[in-house]
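Lab manual, section 2.4: Encoding a predicted structure.

Procedure: take the sequence of the chain (122 residues), apply the prediction step described in section 2.3, and record the output as C-alpha cells. A sample record is shown.
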Amino acid sequence: MTQQIIIATAAFFGMLSVIFGAFGAHALKNILSNEQLHSFEVGVKYQMYHAIVLLVLGFNHNGISAAIYWCFTIGILLFSFSIYGLVLSSAKGKKLRFLGPITPIGGMLLVIGWLLVLINAF
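Recorded output:
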C-alpha cells in the first residue's frame, strides 16, 4: 500500500465521519430513538477512530502492511456502515436484518488490525 493511498483512505473516512456525525446530530435526532441515535453515533466514532489510526500509520509509513490497511478499511466498511444501514432501515420500519451478522465481522477485522499493529511494533 502506498503512503498516498493510506492517507487518502484515512481522509475520506474521516471526512465521511464528520458528515455522518453532523447528519446524525441534526437530521436524524428527531427521527431516531435515543437507542438508535446512540448506535449510529457508535458507528461514527469507530469510523473516526480508525480513520485517525490510518492517518497516523500513513504519515509514519514505516512498513505498514497491506493486511493492516485492509483490516482497518474493510473493518470500517463492515462495522460502521452496517450499523448505519441497520439504524436507518429500522427507522424506516424495514430493518435490513442481513446486516446484523456483518457488524461483528467488521469489528473482528478492526481487532485483527490492531493485533497486526501490535505484532508490527515488534
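Check your result against the sample. The first helix runs from residue 3 to 27.
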